[in-house]
Every structure is written in structure tokens, then in C-alpha cells.
Write a structure and sequence with these properties.
This protein is an alpha+beta fold. Helix content is 20%, strand content 35%. The strands form four sheets. Strands 1, 2, 3, 4, 7, 10, 11, 12 and 13 form a nine-stranded mixed β-sheet that branches. Strands 14-16-17-18-15 form a five-stranded mixed β-sheet.
Length: 303
């Protein structure tokens, strides 16, 4: 009689992995792959990255999933190539060419128009995007042949710089807010220069405090044993680096973990904060806010 294989036991694992997502892998596929590699019960990502893009995809395991919104709201840096002379249906290399132009902008002309695309700007997202229209994803409707009236949105561009430039292709770096569509940015820059263009390559180099310097490749993960993979994780608190930290003693931490507020004491104790996180010896205890000198937890992080 053959032996029934044992079901793989899922692990209660918490922390962040700064994953360097490879080309042609969706964000959902990445989460599934890493959840399997770690044998984790729970995992999620902090901000979708297109399959054709590479770079930083922060993966949250266990209790770190409670800090995903804070990482998603962090500043993003992308490096991207504009291929001049052709517009595509998807505004990237995946779509069919829908318009062409013989105009090839020089570096001076490009440099001159970049200030138009910094600060608060309005974008019309690509039709092939994950925005919901009437309850359905825009890319599903676009693939079905529907003509879409995409709603404009405001985004914030902090910096936009040329890295390299040739007549056929230019690489730029953009520092931007959550919700920015780099494909729309490339399309609109080309239109402003009286030509056509699309994204030829896209790499996300930063999400909040997570950067390329922290990034772990799929090859590194697959070549490591489980203990080695665990050693590549960052603490849950790594997802809270943009928030003020409230340091607690053991008694206060125990109170907070029961969902109760604590009075903050000391000369420098804050009186009011819209959002903050509480820690015990550097470990995250809760996310909450300070009101009338009390830290009030909204989400408790289990130790």
C-alpha cells in the first residue's frame, strides 16, 4: 500500500522581503511563488508592478501585511525608457503600434519640457490598466474591444531627470507619488514634443524606504535553504519607517497589545499625532494615533 504524502505545513511567518521582481512575472504570481518558497500562511504585496516591469516589489508576510498601506503610500522611483517614434495601444512594448512619427527630439528639447511634468499634474491612465470601470478592470474591457473614456487623475511628480539620451531611445528617472502611471507619463512627454513614444523598459528602484540595495532576486531565494531565506527577511517594523515611532516600556506594550490606550509620559512625549507606530525594543507593537497625550492603537501587531 502506497504511503499518502504529508500535506505541507504552513508557517506563521512575519516580515518583509524586498523582492527584485523579474521580467514577465505578474505581482500575483510573485506573491504565490514566494509564499510557496517560504511555506508561509499569509502573504501580500505593497503595490502592483506590471509583468513587463522589473524591480522592487515589497512582499509582506504574516503580521507585516498590516503595514502594507504605509509602504504603498511611500515615494516611488522608477527608471524607464521612452522609445521614440511609435505609440502603442498599451503605451508599452506589449501593444500593437497605433501611430508613428518621424520626429526624434534632441536632449535640449526634452530637458526644456520636463518641468511641465513635475509637481501636481493630471494624467489620463492607459486603457490597459487595472482601474475599475463599472465594476470591471479597464484592461479586460480594452482587450474586449471597448472604447474607454478613462477618468483623469491628479498625481505628484517630485523629480524627473534624463539618465541617457539617443535619437531613438531615452532613459529617465522619475520620483513620484502612489498612483502615477509611468506609461502615461512617457506617452504625454512624447506628445508634448510633437512626436509619439512608448515605454520600452521599466524598473522600479524604490518603494518608500525599500531600494534596489535591499532587493533579493528569485535566484538568490531558490538557491538558499529555508534558514537562509528567513535570514533575508526584514522586520515588520521596516514597513513603518515613514511614521513617527512611539517607544514603549514592557508594561505599556502589554496594555497596547490588549487593545487599550496608554498615557505617554516624559518631556518629549507627543500630545497629538494623526498616525504613529508603537515599539518595544525596536519591535513593532501597534499602529495607531496619539490623542490628548495617549497612544491609541488601531491595529495591534502580534509578537
Amino acid at each position: 500500500m502506497s504511503e499518502v504524502p504529508k500535506k505541507r505545513v504552513k508557517r506563521d511567518l512575519s516580515g518583509w522581503l524586498v523582492f527584485n521582481k523579474p521580467y514577465d512575472m505578474s505581482s500575483t504570481e510573485a506573491v504565490g511563488k514566494l509564499r510557496w518558497l517560504y511555506g508561509a500562511k499569509k502573504a501580500g504585496h505593497a503595490g502592483t508592478l506590471d509583468p513587463l516591469a522589473t524591480g522592487i516589489l515589497p512582499i509582506a508576510f504574516g503580521e507585516a501585511t498590516k503595514t502594507v498601506p504605509m509602504v504603498q503610500d511611500g515615494t516611488k522611483i522608477y527608471h524607464f525608457d521612452i522609445v521614440w517614434g511609435a505609440a502603442t495601444a498599451t503605451d508599452d512594448v506589449e501593444g500593437e503600434v497605433v501611430a508613428t512619427s518621424d520626429v526624434r527630439p534632441d536632449a535640449a528639447a526634452l530637458e526644456a519640457i520636463l518641468p511641465r511634468f513635475t509637481g501636481i499634474i493630471t494624467q489620463i491612465p492607459p486603457a490597459f490598466s487595472a482601474i475599475r470601470i463599472g465594476g470591471e478592470r479597464a484592461y479586460d474591457l480594452a482587450r474586449a474591444g471597448h472604447k474607454l473614456d478613462m477618468p483623469p487623475r491628479e498625481v505628484e511628480i517630485d523629480a524627473l531627470d534624463i539618465i541617457t539620451h539617443t535619437p531613438e531611445r531615452t532613459r529617465l528617472s522619475v520620483t513620484c507619488s502612489k498612483g502615477t502611471y509611468v506609461r502615461a507619463l512617457a506617452r504625454d512627454i512624447a506628445e508634448a514634443l510633437d512626436t509619439k513614444g512608448h515605454v520600452g523598459a521599466l524598473h522600479r528602484a524604490r518603494v518608500g524606504h525599500f531600494t534596489d540595495a535591499d532587493a533579493i532576486t528569485l535566484e538568490q531565494l531558490e538557491s538558499a535553504d529555508l534558514a537562509g531565506r528567513d535570514g533575508l527577511l526584514q522586520a515588520v517594523a521596516a514597513g513603518l519607517a515613514d511614521l513617527p515611532e512611539i517607544r514603549l516600556d514592557a508594561r505599556q506594550a502589554a496594555t497596547i497589545r490588549l487593545g487599550n490606550p496608554v498615557l505617554l509620559t516624559g518631556r518629549d512625549a507627543p500630545v497629538a499625532l494623526d498616525e504613529a507606530w508603537a515599539s518595544l525594543k525596536g519591535e513593532a507593537v501597534a499602529i495607531g494615533f496619539v490623542e490628548a497625550g495617549q497612544f491609541k492603537p488601531k491595529r495591534v501587531i502580534l509578537g
